[in-house]
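hey can u check if this looks right to u? its 286 residues, i copy pasted from the old doc so theres a chance i mangled smth
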Amino acid sequence: MMNVCSRRALLQLACSVVPLEGIDLIRPLAAKSAETPPGPPLVGDLFPAQSPELVHEMVTVAHFDLNRVRELVGARPSLARAAWDWGFGDWETALGAASHMGNRPIAEYLISQGARPSLFSAAMLGQLEVVKAFVSAQSGVQRIRGPHSITLLAHARMGGEAARPVFDFLQSLGDADADAPAPLTDEEAASLIGTYVFGAGTTQQVELTADLKMYANNKMYTHPPQLNWTRKGTMTRPLFHLGDRTFYPAGAPSVRIRFTEQDGTVLMAVSDAELVLTARRKPESK
């Protein structure tokens, strides 16, 4: 029998990838408009680009809130194709959000409004012939990961029984859920947690936390991350272990985050293309 995430596990994952507490982006437009003076809307510096706040909200609510999705797309139809970078180039579309959450009503609504179907939406929706055509056309496409490094097989799993033929087909390929992270014990994870500082500003800090229980029953990540990386004021990024205390953040397999010891403390080095950031863990955070 194909395992499907429990509602509780889904909500836990959504809150880890899209933490809502403290985000002032999900209020209805009517509430926001009440704060602005009457008259023609102001033309922002980014015009004609879409408002980042609206794009952020659109991709966020596409994980779980069909009513709000309808409101946003009804007012601005182009938001059906919205995409957001959660960090390190972990781009996610509104349809991608609905797809990895197994939210068929939102996915079908977005596609009906012009969202561009993808291999991942096809897997979740149980479109077996579409998935087979992709696999036939492009060797190894089944190993490509979606937003947050969630596998194609996991998308099919989230589609439930309607997507079971896709799930069985992908499993038969033998490598649709490959590239498991290297083992990381609870003790090794705990030895790295703390606050890492790379400047004097309040946002120039990274919190490394270990959430060792959260993914225990979650089938979305077959091989669950154990560490979470959060720059102050930004979204949390789960880390995948590559071995030797080297990781990559969810959705960004080319980025490297390495931990070493020096002078009795732990150093963190983040390599993202030409950017190399080094931070030192606060002694009191051991």
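The chain has eleven helices and ten strands.
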